[in-house]
Amino acid sequence: ALQITGLILGAVGMVGALAATAMPQWRVSAYVDGNIVVFETIWEGLWMDCISQLGLRLQCKFYDSALALPPPLEAFRALVCVAALLSVLSFLAAVAGVKYSQRGKQGPRASSTFILAAGAAFLLTGTLVLIPVSCTGAAVVRDFHDPAVPAPLKREPGAALYVGWGSGALLLAAGAVFC
Protein backbone atom coordinates (compact mmCIF):
# COMPACT_ATOMS: atom_id res chain seq x y z
CA ALA A 1 0.00 0.00 0.00
CA LEU A 2 2.88 2.35 0.78
CA GLN A 3 4.51 1.72 -2.60
CA ILE A 4 1.23 2.33 -4.43
CA THR A 5 0.79 5.58 -2.48
CA GLY A 6 4.30 6.64 -3.49
CA LEU A 7 3.55 5.69 -7.08
CA ILE A 8 0.37 7.79 -7.11
CA LEU A 9 2.15 10.77 -5.51
CA GLY A 10 4.97 10.45 -8.04
CA ALA A 11 2.58 10.19 -10.99
CA VAL A 12 0.58 13.26 -9.97
CA GLY A 13 3.82 15.15 -9.24
CA MET A 14 5.22 14.15 -12.63
CA VAL A 15 2.11 15.37 -14.46
CA GLY A 16 2.22 18.61 -12.48
CA ALA A 17 5.90 19.15 -13.28
CA LEU A 18 5.24 18.59 -16.98
CA ALA A 19 2.25 20.95 -16.85
CA ALA A 20 4.16 23.69 -15.01
CA THR A 21 6.95 23.43 -17.57
CA ALA A 22 4.58 23.98 -20.47
CA MET A 23 2.21 26.56 -18.94
CA PRO A 24 2.66 30.22 -19.95
CA GLN A 25 1.21 31.59 -16.68
CA TRP A 26 4.38 31.95 -14.63
CA ARG A 27 3.91 35.71 -14.24
CA VAL A 28 0.49 37.30 -14.75
CA SER A 29 -0.31 41.00 -15.13
CA ALA A 30 -1.37 42.65 -11.89
CA TYR A 31 -4.18 45.13 -11.56
CA VAL A 32 -3.06 47.84 -9.15
CA ASP A 33 -3.97 51.45 -8.42
CA GLY A 34 -7.72 50.86 -8.60
CA ASN A 35 -7.81 50.22 -12.34
CA ILE A 36 -11.01 48.22 -12.86
CA VAL A 37 -11.25 48.64 -16.63
CA VAL A 38 -8.94 45.98 -17.99
CA PHE A 39 -8.80 45.04 -21.63
CA GLU A 40 -5.68 42.90 -21.65
CA THR A 41 -4.25 40.18 -19.47
CA ILE A 42 -0.58 39.42 -19.97
CA TRP A 43 0.96 36.03 -19.20
CA GLU A 44 4.70 35.52 -19.14
CA GLY A 45 6.12 32.01 -19.19
CA LEU A 46 9.36 30.19 -19.77
CA TRP A 47 8.67 29.56 -23.44
CA MET A 48 6.25 32.27 -24.56
CA ASP A 49 4.30 35.41 -23.73
CA CYS A 50 0.54 35.53 -24.18
CA ILE A 51 -1.98 38.38 -24.28
CA SER A 52 -5.66 37.80 -23.70
CA GLN A 53 -7.88 40.62 -24.94
CA LEU A 54 -11.22 40.91 -23.14
CA GLY A 55 -11.07 37.17 -22.42
CA LEU A 56 -12.10 36.47 -26.02
CA ARG A 57 -8.92 36.51 -28.03
CA LEU A 58 -5.66 34.88 -26.98
CA GLN A 59 -2.39 35.58 -28.77
CA CYS A 60 0.78 33.77 -27.83
CA LYS A 61 4.28 34.30 -29.16
CA PHE A 62 7.26 32.05 -28.52
CA TYR A 63 10.49 33.78 -27.62
CA ASP A 64 12.48 34.49 -30.78
CA SER A 65 15.93 33.48 -29.61
CA ALA A 66 17.15 31.47 -26.66
CA LEU A 67 20.35 33.50 -26.67
CA ALA A 68 18.46 36.79 -26.20
CA LEU A 69 16.81 35.62 -22.96
CA PRO A 70 18.01 36.81 -19.56
CA PRO A 71 20.39 34.32 -17.88
CA PRO A 72 17.99 33.43 -15.03
CA LEU A 73 15.28 32.49 -17.53
CA GLU A 74 17.73 30.31 -19.46
CA ALA A 75 18.73 28.57 -16.23
CA PHE A 76 15.10 28.07 -15.18
CA ARG A 77 14.26 26.58 -18.57
CA ALA A 78 17.16 24.14 -18.26
CA LEU A 79 16.19 23.17 -14.70
CA VAL A 80 12.55 22.47 -15.51
CA CYS A 81 13.49 20.49 -18.63
CA VAL A 82 15.88 18.34 -16.60
CA ALA A 83 13.22 17.99 -13.89
CA ALA A 84 10.56 16.95 -16.40
CA LEU A 85 12.83 14.31 -17.93
CA LEU A 86 13.96 13.09 -14.52
CA SER A 87 10.37 12.88 -13.28
CA VAL A 88 9.49 10.52 -16.13
CA LEU A 89 12.58 8.39 -15.45
CA SER A 90 11.82 8.38 -11.71
CA PHE A 91 8.29 7.23 -12.35
CA LEU A 92 9.48 4.43 -14.65
CA ALA A 93 12.01 3.30 -12.03
CA ALA A 94 9.28 3.34 -9.38
CA VAL A 95 6.98 1.26 -11.59
CA ALA A 96 9.78 -1.24 -12.16
CA GLY A 97 10.51 -1.40 -8.42
CA VAL A 98 6.86 -1.95 -7.53
CA LYS A 99 6.53 -4.57 -10.25
CA TYR A 100 9.61 -6.47 -9.05
CA SER A 101 8.57 -6.31 -5.41
CA GLN A 102 5.13 -7.73 -6.19
CA ARG A 103 6.55 -10.56 -8.28
CA GLY A 104 9.16 -11.50 -5.72
CA LYS A 105 11.02 -13.77 -8.16
CA GLN A 106 14.00 -11.49 -8.68
CA GLY A 107 14.57 -11.18 -4.96
CA PRO A 108 14.22 -8.27 -2.56
CA ARG A 109 17.56 -6.79 -3.57
CA ALA A 110 16.48 -6.04 -7.17
CA SER A 111 13.24 -4.38 -6.08
CA SER A 112 14.88 -2.38 -3.29
CA THR A 113 17.50 -1.06 -5.72
CA PHE A 114 14.84 0.22 -8.10
CA ILE A 115 12.73 1.65 -5.29
CA LEU A 116 15.66 3.41 -3.63
CA ALA A 117 16.80 4.81 -7.00
CA ALA A 118 13.27 6.02 -7.70
CA GLY A 119 13.06 7.64 -4.26
CA ALA A 120 16.35 9.48 -4.67
CA ALA A 121 15.38 10.56 -8.18
CA PHE A 122 11.98 11.82 -6.98
CA LEU A 123 13.70 13.84 -4.23
CA LEU A 124 16.09 15.36 -6.77
CA THR A 125 13.25 16.05 -9.19
CA GLY A 126 11.17 17.79 -6.53
CA THR A 127 14.14 19.98 -5.65
CA LEU A 128 14.78 20.80 -9.31
CA VAL A 129 11.14 21.82 -9.75
CA LEU A 130 11.04 23.95 -6.60
CA ILE A 131 14.19 25.97 -7.38
CA PRO A 132 12.97 27.86 -10.49
CA VAL A 133 9.39 28.08 -9.22
CA SER A 134 10.42 29.55 -5.87
CA CYS A 135 12.99 31.92 -7.40
CA THR A 136 10.41 33.18 -9.89
CA GLY A 137 7.83 33.61 -7.12
CA ALA A 138 10.30 35.54 -4.98
CA ALA A 139 11.22 37.81 -7.90
CA VAL A 140 7.55 38.47 -8.69
CA VAL A 141 6.78 39.42 -5.08
CA ARG A 142 9.94 41.55 -4.82
CA ASP A 143 9.11 43.45 -8.03
CA PHE A 144 5.46 43.87 -7.02
CA HIS A 145 6.42 45.65 -3.81
CA ASP A 146 9.23 47.67 -5.40
CA PRO A 147 8.08 51.31 -5.80
CA ALA A 148 10.58 51.80 -8.65
CA VAL A 149 8.67 49.33 -10.86
CA PRO A 150 5.87 51.12 -12.75
CA ALA A 151 2.32 49.83 -12.17
CA PRO A 152 1.85 48.46 -15.74
CA LEU A 153 4.96 46.29 -15.32
CA LYS A 154 3.94 44.75 -12.00
CA ARG A 155 3.13 41.06 -12.11
CA GLU A 156 1.52 38.50 -9.82
CA PRO A 157 2.36 34.80 -9.41
CA GLY A 158 0.58 32.79 -12.07
CA ALA A 159 -1.06 29.39 -12.02
CA ALA A 160 2.10 27.64 -13.21
CA LEU A 161 3.90 28.64 -10.02
CA TYR A 162 1.18 27.14 -7.85
CA VAL A 163 1.17 23.98 -9.95
CA GLY A 164 4.95 23.86 -9.65
CA TRP A 165 4.90 24.25 -5.87
CA GLY A 166 2.27 21.54 -5.55
CA SER A 167 4.00 19.12 -7.87
CA GLY A 168 7.36 19.77 -6.19
CA ALA A 169 5.82 18.92 -2.82
CA LEU A 170 4.23 15.75 -4.24
CA LEU A 171 7.53 14.68 -5.81
CA LEU A 172 9.35 15.22 -2.52
CA ALA A 173 6.66 13.23 -0.72
CA ALA A 174 6.96 10.40 -3.26
CA GLY A 175 10.72 10.41 -2.82
CA ALA A 176 10.35 10.22 0.97
CA VAL A 177 7.91 7.33 0.66
CA PHE A 178 10.21 5.36 -1.64
CA CYS A 179 13.35 6.08 0.38
Automatic annotation (TrEMBL):
GO terms for cellular component: bicellular tight junction; plasma membrane. Gene3D superfamilies: 1.20.140.150. Keywords: Cell junction, Cell membrane, Membrane, Tight junction, Transmembrane, Transmembrane helix. It is found in: Cell junction, Tight junction; Cell membrane. It is a multi-pass membrane protein. It holds the Pfam family PMP22_Claudin. GO terms for molecular function: structural molecule activity. InterPro entries: Claudin, Claudin_CS, PMP22/EMP/MP20/Claudin. The keyword Iron-sulfur does not apply. The chain crosses the membrane at residues 75-98, 110-139, 159-178. PANTHER family: CLAUDIN (PTHR12002). Claudins function as major constituents of the tight junction complexes that regulate the permeability of epithelia. Belongs to the claudin family. This is Claudin.
